[in-house]
Amino acid sequence: MDRLRSLEVFVSVVELGSFSSAANGFGITPAMVSRHITGLEKQLGGTLLARTTRSMKLTELGENYYKNCKHILGLLSAANLGAEALTRRPQGNLKVSASLGFGALELSPKISQYLTGYPEVNIELSLTDRYVDIIEEGFDVAIRIGELKDSSLKARRIADFELAICAAPTYLAKAGYPRTPDDLPHHECLEFASWGNKAGWQSLTKTSRQTPARAPRYTANNGHALRDAALAGIGLIMMPRALLQQDIESGALIEVMADYLPRPRPVYAVFPGEKQLAPKLSSFIDFLADSFSIRH
Length: 296
Fold this sequence. Notes:
Layout: H1 3-16, H2 19-26, H3 30-44, E1 49-51, E2 56-58, H4 60-87, E3 92-98, H5 100-117, E4 121-127, E5 141-145, E6 154-161, E7 163-167, H6 169-175, E8 191-192, H7 201-205, E9 219-220, H8 223-231, E10 237-240, H9 241-250, E11 254-255, E12 265-271, H10 279-295
Parallel strand pairs: 3-4, 3-5, 8-9
Antiparallel strand pairs: 1-2, 5-12, 6-12, 7-10, 7-11
Helix pairs in contact: 1-2, 1-3, 1-4, 2-3
């Protein structure tokens, strides 16, 4: 009997809690699962699972053996994945998350270019401005703008986006041009809900002589919504320049306070902390880093 398969069956029995569930997973009968477990116990000279007609429990030997089996199977999986990465073309399905504005204007064209160069990869792109739990929701990678929170995820910086502060001509005609951060208390500042106390407008006013005297009239978690408000003359907007470039070039928005912009915002590819990335994911992240570095 295949010793490696017996280890896999044993681990499955422990994690699924029954012989029948493990049997379904491997496409074999519960009797064959029992043969695998019995064979291991004979080789080890001890009982791995204390079994009755109604329950099953790991013995002390079984608990220790289970931990070692998990470690061995994990190492084997990593070794196989590493070998495949050297010999296999990127292929399979890739699930990607990004914000609405960035995804539609910047990421989507890059994905089209990537798919042309990697015909064996399929991409499912999900655009949302809410925070996505990529582990819980099954994403391979999320593209995020701004400094990251501490987490168990891995991240690679793929670009830096310069910011721009803009307003519609109608707003500036009514409220005047802000020249420095000290002028902001006299203006309507459109605000991202996710900025918090240290980002966005706060990053401009923390070193000025004043702080904004009033709360923003319009806060949203969506860049398109804030852009629409800015175009309608509701207030000042601060966003990555690339997302406002067309409006700036057309004259729909006018840049202000160019000498007081915050530092460029980093763009990260965030992904689960696996030791060895699948070729489809590593090739996608490499492609984005190379293509964005040309423009940004």
